[in-house]
Each structure stands twice: as C-alpha cells, then as structure tokens.
Amino acid sequence: MNIYLLLVLVFLAGAWLLETASTLLNLRALSPAVPEEFADVAEAQHYARSQEYARANAKLDMVTETAGTVALAAAVLAGAFPFLDRVVRGMFDHYIPQGLAFFGILALASGVLTVPASVYRTFVLEARFGFNRTTPALFIRDRIKGVLLGVSIGGPLLAGVLWFFATLGEWAWLVAWAFTVVVSLGVQYVAPVLILPLFNTFTPLPEGTLRGAIERYVREQGFSLSGLFVMDGSKRSGKGNAFFTGFGKKKRIALFDTLVETMPEEEVVAVVAHEVGHCRLRHVHRMVAAGVVRTGVTFLLLSFVLQSRPLFDAFGMQHMSLHAGIVFFSLLYTPLALLTGVWANALSRRYEFEADAFAARTTRGAEALASALKRLSVGNLSNLTPHRFHVLLHYSHPPVVERLQRLRAFGPPAAG
Ligand SMILES: [Zn+2]
C-alpha cells in the first residue's frame, strides 16, 4: 500500500479514536455531586438536567464523528476523488473553474450529509431542553445565506490561491499566504457591518441605567467604543452571550438580548469589562497574529506536497490536479491541525483567565463577574465537570469552575 494512503487512513482512524476517547472520558467525568462553587445556585434537579444535556450532546457527537469518518474513508477508498476530478475535467477546460467546481461539489456533498445532524441538533436536541427558538423557515434561510457567503468569499479566495500555485512557482505559497491574510482581515473588518447583520438585528442599547453604567465604566477605562448593541440572539436560541467585534476605532460590543433581559445591571457591566479586557490586553491582535503565522506554515507545507507524484498515486489520480492536491494535503495535515488547534485553545483559555482578572480589577471586585458566569452556566446548562482531555481538545474557554476558583482569589469587593 502507498505510504501516503496508509498515513491518511491512520490519521483518520487516529482522529476518530481521540475524539471518541475524549467524549467517553467526558461522560465518565459527569458527577452527580453539584460542584461546591454552584451549591448556592444549582438545584439538584436542574443540575441533573445539565448532565442529561451533556449526555445527549455526547451521543450526537459520537454518531456524527463516526459517520463523518466512515464517509470520508469510504470516499478515499472508493476512488471518489479521481472520479470527481474526471467529472470536473469533463465540465471545464481551465484549471480555475475545474478547481471551483471540484470544491463546490465537495462542499455541497458535505453540506447535504451534515444537514440531518444539524436538523436533529436544532429541532430535537436543543428543543427538548427548551433552547431552540429557530423556526424551519429561519433554518433554511440561514443555510442559504451561509452558502451564498461561502461562494462569494471562498470562491474568489480559492480562485486566487489556485492561480498563484499554477503560475508563480516556488514563491506561490508566499503570495497565497499574503492574499489569504488580506482577504481574511478584510472579512473580519467588514463583518460587523456587512455580514453579521445578514443573520441578526443589532439595535443600539437604549438609553437608561444599564447604558449609563456601561458608558461610565468604558469612560473610566479611557476606552473608545464605536457602538454598544443588543443582538436578537433569542431569534435562534434561549442561550445568552456577549461578544466583541471590529478593530481600531470600529470596536463594538454586542450583548445578546437574552443576557440583557435576565442579568442584573452590575453583572452585565462585569461581562462588558471582561470583553474590554480582551481588547486592552491585546488578545484580539495576538490571536489574529497567531492565525497569520499558522496560515503561513500551512501554505509552506502545502507547497511541498503539491509536487509529490506519490501523493496523487495514493488516491489513484491520473492527473496531478492542484485542487485535488489541496484536499489530499488537508487529509495529511490532520495531526498538525489537531496540534495547532490544541495550542490555539490553550492560548485562548489563558486569555480568558486574563480577561477575567482584568474585569475583577477594574470593576469593584470579582463578585459580579462570578455571579454572571454562574448565571450563564446554569442558564445554558453548561457541563460543570468536563474531563481535562476534552478541555484540552475542545475548550476555548476554561471550565467555569476553574474560572470561579481563580476569581475567588480576588476576594470580596472593596468597601465603598
Ligand atoms: Zn472572553
């Protein structure tokens, strides 16, 4: 057997094994005893429900993970890629439309295959636990908008990358890297104004005591904010959240309506303080920089394997098509993707602790943030006792109990 084919199959099986082990360990870590930090807020019955939710999610994750792995391995072994390559070569003469069609058909196939799980998650699982507010019409509209966005951003990006690798020789990876970075920064820059409003309505937070309190805090911090919005998150889900978008002078904070409606004022301010902390501590810039480095390494490695005839032989390819080479590379890249993902999550978790500490320092004490985190976790039925391995692989935020333990070190609020 060709060494590349063997590697790809071993990586696929290995990734499946890791995911399954992580899910099983996570299930085993569910403990019937309410963690100490939550003794005052989580009733036993509600806590049992959060565990039921974790179990239901774990089951669905294992089914989708297994089905996805089997489908991909079957596609590799059955020669789906050379077949598809022949189809697109029959459709077009030029490598760019061939490549776009190749990726388009693959994206369509994976989209169609993942619809059942997505429908089940939204309309059965989330609905069973009282979270779902998405209507079937909204679900379909979201999907259509997602496809149109993918085509309008991914299409030109992919066409550019194919063109560089076909024409620029050994410097192609460098130009492709620069191009991808510019496109993705551009997308992130326009997202708050052009993309996010396609999916949600953002209304300025109305004048009142909450707005006054947030503005006072932001002013105290000497922080400039171009907008403070409420997002209609309740249109899709009952879960609450808050986030930050934009760079430089275009920084905005969006609070989910579900959060504004259920959380006391000082807790919302603490959540905003956490978000301001991310910005102040330059977390956003650092994550972007890390992403840029990661993209560069990926393109450099891609440029090595695109020339490798044995890689194409492994999949039974007649031609060394660029588009197919990119897909084969992504399969070979699995272990590295896993490692960089683990690294990015670890970095993100560290930043979360730092932003929590920032919020505790700049609002009076940590009580309000701790109380907000508890309220969010209880409301969202978060798993309070995830297994460390699962956290390592998947958590961009530290487990809430660890965040509360660190916040406790800040002590009770200072007098006055
Ligand atoms: Zn955060």
UniProtKB/TrEMBL annotation:
The keyword Transport appears for this protein: no
Compartment annotation: Endoplasmic reticulum membrane
Domain (Peptidase M48): residue spans on this chain: 205-409
Residue sites binding Zn(2+) per the record: H274, H278, E352
GO molecular function: metal ion binding; metalloendopeptidase activity
Primary localization class, coarse: endoplasmic reticulum
Active-site residue list: E275, D356
CAAX prenyl protease 1 N-terminal domain segment(s): 26-201
Keyword annotations: Endoplasmic reticulum, Hydrolase, Membrane, Metal-binding, Metalloprotease, Protease, Transmembrane, Transmembrane helix, Zinc
Domain of life (superkingdom): Bacteria
Keyword Iron assigned: no
Matches recorded under InterPro entries: CAXX_Prtase_1, Peptidase_M48, Peptidase_M48_N
Cofactor note: Binds 1 zinc ion per subunit.
Transmembrane parts of this sequence: 100-123, 144-165, 171-196, 287-306, 326-344
Cofactor: Zn(2+)
Gene Ontology annotations of biological process type: CAAX-box protein processing
Annotated signal peptide: none
Recorded topology in the membrane: Multi-pass membrane protein
Pfam families: Peptidase_M48, Peptidase_M48_N
Family label: Belongs to the peptidase M48 family.
Full protein name: Peptidase M48
